[in-house]
Amino acid sequence: MHVVVIGAGAAGMMAAYAAASHRASVVLLEKNNKTGVKILMSGGTRCNLTHHTDARGIADAFGHAKRFLQPSLGGFPPQAVVDFFESAGVATKIESTGKVFPVSNRAVQVRDALHHYAVDAGVEIRTGCGVTGIRPDGQKWLVETEQSVIATDRVIVTTGGKSWPGCGTTGDAYAWMTELGHAIERTRPALVPLLGGEPWMKDLSGLAVDDSIVTVLPVSGKQKSLAHRRGSLLFTHFGFSGPVAMDVSGAITAATSVDQVHTIADLVPQYSEEEVKTALSNRQDGGKLKVSSLLSMWLPNRLANAITTQLGHDARLAELSKNSKNRLIQNLKRMQLPIRGTRGFEKAEVTAGGVRLDQVDPRTFESRIHKGLFIAGELLDVDGPIGGYNFQAAFSTGRAAGIAASS
Question: Is 2-187+351-405 in CATH node 3.50.50.60?
Fold first, then answer.
């Protein structure tokens, strides 16, 4: 069996290795001059390769794609990914957030392990080889490259989405899939920093609230949250970043317009609203404690002072009016985070949307429209949260596609 894999990222290198390991003759095409460019940049060049959970824990994080991903995740769960890399000499560690990284903190180790696994299995890797199209031709597939046309029995497309286009992921395959009859769910940036904020928040650039809850709500209709995440929130010169802002960004880009949703932050999730109210009414010291002093016990000083400034004056607790207390509670438990957009695909870690899942077999990743065409990784309509979930999905779907394409 001859197999061509298009795109040498996480899913593509895993697919190529899996196919070659099952005795297929495999050619892996990559338009960049080296493999795994996105892997090398990921996780601040540390590469968060999976999450410390089981297959169910990964699947649950993918929302609408949960059931679709279950078979491949069951076949290659997080522990299997860890074992796979450890067997290649990539020692791993689990951080307090559950993220799994190489002990070395070097993404190049992850890339090199995948690359060498593929080469050792007999994969022919052609870098600097951009694909311009694919089409069926009788019992064969024709893969058109900038240099030649390759005839093959099976083709696995793992070109990724549109996120981080500087890595070469410019969404080339969406047009190919559309021409072949596949429907594409609207693509949009996810895990992306947010633009916005109030003018006074600009002075907080670089400040992180380590424990916060950010919630995205619809402007109209029932107030059921569209996204709700707890973790670190980073104030920036352009708006907001950090894990919680990026995790809820997909819910914001899913809206037809940013005006249809509003975003709020609980800056003191460790305290209930009633506990905050009680603290503001504290009379144990005669109410002499100043607002800024109390807030500094809960928040970074710059943020505590900024919120106090918004109040108009740094009053003693005993001097606070009912209206001032309510404003403080609002700012602490439901701070408005005005959002006017995102930093787009240029800064997005993943692409939401993609090839519709009901047109792909979740066990083999073969197209339900064309025999011999396999689709895996981020090109599919799957996107998960920060924390190694997306790499895990890439490894699992790529492996399943590679095994199936080799038979």
Answer: yes
